[in-house]
Write a structure and sequence with these properties.
- It contains three helices and 28 strands.
- The chain has 352 residues and is mainly β.
- The chain has helices at 6-18, 317-320, 326-344, and strands at 27-32, 40-45, 51-55, 60-64, 70-74, 82-87, 93-97, 102-106, 112-116, 126-128, 134-138, 141-145, 151-155, 162-167, 173-177, 181-185, 191-195, 202-207, 213-217, 222-226, 232-236, 244-249, 255-259, 264-268, 274-278, 286-291, 296-301, 305-310.
- A four-stranded antiparallel beta sheet has the order 1-28-27-26, with no helix packed on it. Strands 2-3-4-5 form a four-stranded antiparallel beta sheet, with no helix packed on it. Strands 6-7-8-9 form a four-stranded antiparallel beta sheet, with no helix packed on it.
- It has one domain: 7 Propeller (Methylamine Dehydrogenase, Chain H), CATH 2.130.10.
- The longest helix has 19 residues, at 326-344.
- Helix 1 crosses helix 3 (326-344).
- It is globular.
Length: 352
């Protein structure tokens, strides 16, 4: 994955400083998965313009179009427990099978291939790496699988329990360790760990536009930020016990996170200001969140729900600057597109 040139990065940040999103503009649409008690969990934007998701209980991979049409594909191994999913460098989707000790690959046409891990492995999060491989977490190990299916694993020290993984702005892989802290692994397998206060329970993690990593703290009611050198900042979530789970960049330049403890989605700015939005279905805690096509953010939720949140972005020309010409807006758009592609990690784009 090619690093973002400094000029493009700064241009994107400047453009985003002009952008605003008001709570009144955020709209929700929710869709029900056809299979009852499917428990949709992982979700990501696919290379075909659709969203792809895992069905933890019904043993399927789902695809939903931006307009809400759902298709489901059975996983060959019974009771495989699909969890994480990401676009791969080969134009396919890759997913983890937590119960079956496997990593799966599905084409956009629905053909599934499975690759076995060592017996007893419990893979969870997965992402496309900057080296053209897939990287995933297996509790006490970090795994790497090539598009051809060759697997290498790296053991974690300190009895760490890894959960989610993403590509950092430094082209390393960064991951959460729910019982220890935040970890970093190079593409050659060198691991560094950064401890957090006891009980933090970091879960979701994503790269921010500020050159740092942002993560959720499931048990500590906070959103955390860690620089690539290990400096940590934390920001409180207003609600008590939200059980923040997943975090992803949004189309408005802010970060968005799910709250499994409530039917809410949260937004945090780079200055740490948090706003929470209630989703339509009550008592349906939200699980995983990802950026979708256009100005949308998608999420999975309890009660077999796939949700779409539309987040319009406006540029307040009259209040921000005397005038913003069409060529300036075009430059902003190009810079934001390049950054978004870097963030979305689809082999030029990104995931969860």
């Amino acid at each position: 994955m090619v690093p973002i040139p400094t000029g493009v990065f700064l241009t994107a940040v400047l453009c985003l400083s002009l952008a605003t999103t008001s709570p009144a503009q955020v709209t929700f649409t929710e869709f029900t998965v056809p299979t009852a008690t499917a428990v949709p969990f992982g979700i990501t934007a696919g290379p075909d313009g659709n969203l792809w998701f895992t069905e933890l209980s019904s043993n399927k991979i789902g695809r939903i179009t931006p307009s809400g049409m759902v298709a489901e594909f059975d996983i060959p191994t019974a009771n495989s427990g699909p969890v994480g999913i990401t676009p791969g460098p080969d134009g396919n989707l890759w997913f983890t099978e937590n119960y079956a000790s496997k990593v799966g690959r599905i084409t956009t046409g629905g053909t599934i291939t499975e690759f076995s891990l060592p017996f007893g492995s419990t893979p969870w999060g997965i992402t496309s790496g900057p080296d053209g491989n897939l990287w995933f977490v297996v509790f006490d190990r970090i795994g790497r699988i090539t598009p051809a299916g060759a697997i290498t694993e790296f053991s974690l020290p300190n009895n760490a329990a890894a959960v989610q993984i993403t590509v950092g702005p430094d082209s390393n892989l960064w991951f959460t360790e729910e019982n220890f802290g935040i970890g970093r692994v190079t593409t050659s397998g060198l691991i560094t760990q950064f401890p957090l206060p006891a009980g933090s329970s970091p879960f979701g993690i994503t790269a921010g536009l500020d050159g740092a990593l942002w993560f959720t703290e499931f048990d500590h009611n906070r959103i955390g930020r860690i620089t690539t050198t290990g400096g940590v900042s934390e920001y409180a979530i207003p609600s008590a016990y939200p059980e923040s789970e997943s975090i992803a960049p949004g189309p408005d330049g802010n970060l968005w996170f799910s709250e499994e403890g409530f039917n809410r989605i949260g937004r945090i700015t780079y200055s740490g200001a948090v706003t929470e939005f209630s989703t339509p279905t009550g008592n349906a805690g939200t699980f995983i969140i990802t950026r979708g096509p256009g100005n949308t953010v998608w999420y999975t939720a309890d009660s077999d729900i796939i949700g779409r949140m539309t987040v319009p972005v406006t540029v307040p020309v009259a209040n921000a600057v005397p005038a913003v010409s069409s060529w300036a807006l075009a430059i902003c758009g190009a810079a934001l597109t390049l950054v978004a592609l870097r963030q979305l990690a689809i082999p030029s784009r990104k995931v969860y």
